[in-house]
């Protein structure tokens, strides 16, 4: 069976293990599915993220274990790739938010996020990718090539209720929440004025930081320069087919099953960082899902050993600063902020990849600063999930489990910290409160 992702990492899986039945068809992809050992950790509702859909429904059918069972049945009973058109898979995967928690919290490390990407790619091959999927997945292209018209269209849709209702009827984009609006101007790369006593770093400004929240990229630049680094912006290689369009991690394409487009973006990234890989220059990112996708899911695109070399140089903003503090003696001069105790919400990927420790460490550098962590699962936005009309209610139920009640219960002046673009959008929509990226907080604390 032809697969769109590289599943060779699972080649030796199942040899000598007590696997609970590898499907007859599907090769290494089937082995990835069969990793599940039925521990049922995905059906727990205590601390942790997994599994957001089970948490809101209490129905085993919406757990990772049940999704595995549906894939096993489809692969065993279906005819080759046609198995992916099985309606049982549509039902099983409907509420999966690709949070990556199962890879971290499941004892068998079931990677349902990538399993879902392959499923969607196969389904698109059979039925074609719906227009809404192409719109949401193609955000990097729309913002890079048609920024002006897109910004106008979103502003019109948000301001004019009949336009929002029309978009829901034609495209399935919910009319019950506003779409994120593009900033007046995108982030403008510039040459660092800092001498860079501590060396050079490359700032990877993702699609969302570039076009929606350029002030976050600006704040991160200021902090890195003050810390003693010469900051350069990640830009396309001179040979790039689209040199004027910013680099993109390709995650929006992966989560919507548009694998070839994700692979195209990944090749652009590898070409752009060729010299940086050779020089071992650190690459710093701001959006958890973007940076951590480059570090993890790029392997699934079968692009060679360079992917591993790149991964060793990729850091989230807080990871980089804490690493430099521990390994290279970085001391950032910060002042106390006149702020009450804050609330910290971690993005699913920050939790799945163990980045929250670095987040907490960096916040501890601010004199007298205190905060509480919101014990939450997925915020419910999950990229485009919360914008889909049929998923709006599920999205809000995920947010209402603990995140939104905690935010509403906090005094009005309480700072809310959330590094995820989708998380901030969900918090603002559900509570009217604006959350901030950690880079803004550290910039404000610069002495």
- Can you tell me the residue ranges where pLDDT is under 50 for at least 5 consecutive residues? none
Assembly annotation: single chain
Strand content: 5-15%
Q: Into which percent range does the helicity of residues fall?
A: 40-55%
Largest sheet: 4 strands, parallel
Number of DSSP strands?
7
Question: Could you say which overall geometry the principal axes of the C-alpha atoms support?
Answer: globular
User: Could you give the order of strands across the largest sheet?
Assistant: 2-1-3-4
What is the helix tally? 24
Mean pLDDT: 94
**Structural class based on helices, strands and sheet pairing:** mainly alpha
What is the straight-line distance between the termini? Answer: 59 Å
Description of the molecule:
Among the domains are: 8-127, no CATH class; 342-445, Rossmann fold. With 447 residues, the protein is mainly alpha-helical. 47% of the residues lie in helices and 6% in strands. It has helices spanning 27-33, 52-57, 64-77, 87-93, 101-105, 112-127, 131-137, 139-145, 147-159, 161-171, 207-211, 214-226, 251-255, 259-272, 274-279, 288-296, 306-311, 317-328, 348-352, 356-363, 392-400, 403-409, 421-431, 438-445, and strands spanning 200-204, 230-233, 283-285, 314-316, 342-345, 371-373, 416-418. This is (Fe-S)-binding protein. One of its GO terms (molecular function) is 4 iron, 4 sulfur cluster binding. Residues 85-115 form the 4Fe-4S ferredoxin-type domain. It holds the Pfam family Fer4_8.
